[in-house]
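Sample entry (182 residues):
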Amino acid sequence: MTRRKLSFLAVLSLLLIFSALSLGAREKSTISQAIRLYGRGHTAACRAILEPMCSENSMDDIAWGYMVMCLERDAAPGYQGMVTKFLSRFPYSTLVTPVRFLYAKNLFDEHLYSEASAQYENLDSSLLDREDLNEYTFKKAYCDYVAGNFAEAFSGMETVSATKGSPYVTSARFFLGYMAYT
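Predicted structure, serialized as tokens:
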């Protein structure tokens, strides 16, 4: 090869490398923008940004995870299938716990307590923030109560009722009284 061809190949290689790095930086910036929108409750805008990034071949667990959480928050038709797909595709993602938590909340709100309980059982509650942990503990205890696991339900309700500032304290105390009465 001539020196000129080698120089051309070196420049071409550098251009390809820099364009790939630039694309990765742009993609990260786009995902950051989507995450900010999600945090502000703008799930439709977040989905609009992430949907093109979540192709069948995409292995970006962050984009997929936030897209699924948007679908869950909106209770979009077919979101359950997307949850299942995400959990099977990315079982070690850092977003598995929040995806499972939202899924369990939706199942709970649909009065599907045994299914909600199964999701609550399979998430790592140590990764939840304090507010979500109180909600998790209360709803998990309620699912236990419905399933007839009264000891676990009582224990969970006691934990919530002892938490200061939780919006679930009053309900937990009510259920403790109700369980003691029945």
